[in-house]
Specification:
Elements lengths: L1 H12 L3 H18 L5 H10 L4 H14 L4 H14 L22 H9 L2
Amino acid sequence: MKSLYQAGNCLEQLGRIGEARDRYTKAIALVEKSHDSFGWPYQGMARLLLDEKPEAASEFAKKAVSLQPDEYSNHAILSKVYERLGDLPVQSVRRRPRLPEIRTIPRPAMLFTNFIGR
């Protein structure tokens, strides 16, 4: 299944989209049959569908994320799909925790001046 994905990826880069779609479809069938957690074929299919059928691309991208949530590229394609659909869900954006307020630290030159002046 990984070799089918790689073949599809190479064909996609060569602009042979029909053949790439065929390889991704076959890889997805093998992933579903084996219940493997390999999301890249879904990611590839999402890339192919992004311009023509973003709604369909969304389903493939979500599946890729569900299979491999730690793979950053799955999240990247999902965010591209959301952007294309004009639907960036707020809950999917991780926000940094609020940091405590930091007091201003004197610059070293000021510390040196204060030391010399004593």
